UniProtKB/TrEMBL annotation:
Residues 1-39 are annotated as: Disordered. Keywords: 4Fe-4S, Flavoprotein, FMN, Iron, Iron-sulfur, Metal-binding. The keyword Ribosomal protein does not apply. Residues 341-385 form the NADH-ubiquinone oxidoreductase 51kDa subunit iron-sulphur binding domain. This is NADH-quinone oxidoreductase subunit NuoF family protein. InterPro entries: ComplexI_51kDa_subunit, Nuo51_FMN-bd, Nuo51_FMN-bd_sf, Nuop51_4Fe4S-bd, Nuop51_4Fe4S-bd_sf. The keyword ATP-binding does not apply. It comes from the Bacteria. It comes from Streptomyces olivaceiscleroticus. Pfam families: Complex1_51K, Fer4_15, NADH_4Fe-4S. Its cofactor is [4Fe-4S] cluster; FMN. Belongs to the complex I 51 kDa subunit family.
Amino acid sequence: MRAPTRGTGSADVRLRHGAATSHDGGAPDIGAAAPPPWPPRLLAGVTTPHGAARLDRVAHLTVHGTAPVLSAGELVALAENIGLRGRGGAGFPFARKVTAVREALRRSGGPAAVVVNGTEGEPGCLKDTALLLYAPHLVLDGALLAAHALGAQEVAVGVTRADVADSVGRALAERGPMSLRSRVARLPERFVGGEGSALIDGLDGGPGLPSGRKVRSSERGLGGLPTLLSNTETYAQLAVAARLGALGHRTTGVPDEPGTLLLTVAGRHVLEAPTGAPLAQALAHCGTGPGQGVLIGGYHGTFLAPAAARTVTLDRAALAAHGAVLGAGALLPLPAGTCPAGECAAVARWLAGESAGQCGPCVLGLPALADALAAVVRGGGARALAAVRARVRAVERRGACGHPDGTARFVASALAAFPEEFAAHAHGGGCGRPVLGALPLPGGAAPPTAASPVRAAAPAAQLVVDWTLCRGHGLCADLAPGVVRLGPDGYPQQAAMALPARMRRRAQLAVRRCPALALRVRPAAE
């Protein structure tokens, strides 16, 4: 185990959201449960003896000082020297993003844009919420530093919570007139909404869904401009590093990954720690332990066994040795009193409902995977377990975005981490424990049990075929996959097909493009 070097890295921020609390709930109650084990950087000045305090512009400058101005070359050099990577999940090197935008600008000769991703659709992650609620100016410093270096004409911040949008809006107003356009936009909250193309689509006035096309935002992003897009914490880390310089930044963390991390522990506590800090110490500071295992990286992440969780450190190399990545920084331990199989089945059902509705693996594969996992929990036998594994293989590497792969990885990791639990449930024994909601879900989604398995919500409408007009072109099956299924003769198998809300837009597109004008959407009230 590598111990972190001495440093300047943490504060404890407790967001006392219940496991079923929506991300759009009231302002979090933040306050230190105990003296923080590491001093703060990003959260400096936020925690006080009386709880948390939002840093307005004056307080922010008092704590952090004035932000420097960097050229594009200096920005790239700083990001390379400190090994800055995106903190939204993918961990892509920030310097490469900036370089890609610069190259696109050389080719286009036009302006750029900068986008801050503060959507945070992960139910177990609240770190970006904490930053934007209590230290919004630090995030804006980083975004504006990058914007000025690139000569950008706009900075846009995408969020989902009303209180977060208000905090960022106030911060922009506190800065007064600026030389470039700056705005905050509140977008629909969905798990896939934080994907890059979905965020750009939402900021440009679209529905906020992944495009499914391999178009880099650095080439064509906000308003069609070359766009630097990164996560809230990434820009905050940039703002701190610009003030400290590369050498000052390296005074904490591990040598090959210096600096600090923002973590969300158990879906409630936001903690800043130096890279290389022991996972067990981060859990203990938040009043918990490894329990039956710890989900690392959120609902597209990987479970660590208790033994590994007690020894592993929080850095890329140490986690990679266990097949895990930190992702967006969510650490979700499963306490001894909850049912792991039921917890994971509830999450799988929720993930299936978070589909963008744009490809078969999402529309068909993920609900089928959730059904198979729920059947295991209800005692479906060896056949049900085999069906789960088959469904995992069926969706892998086939989606238009990363959601099917991430969901399959979560389920496969759960099966590997808790084989005896799933086997006991499949063969009718179960574990006798309730599902406590240790893996938080928005709106208090119910876990599957033998008496009341989780089911998808009833469809609100139907897609209807007029047989007197249909000519079997089959275009509708391509435009609304999972809604329209064609028979051997090439015609739809049913005259009226259930239409989930997430597929309404695709169905309307099929109605408009049907060559025979044989389709219509029938509302549930008819």
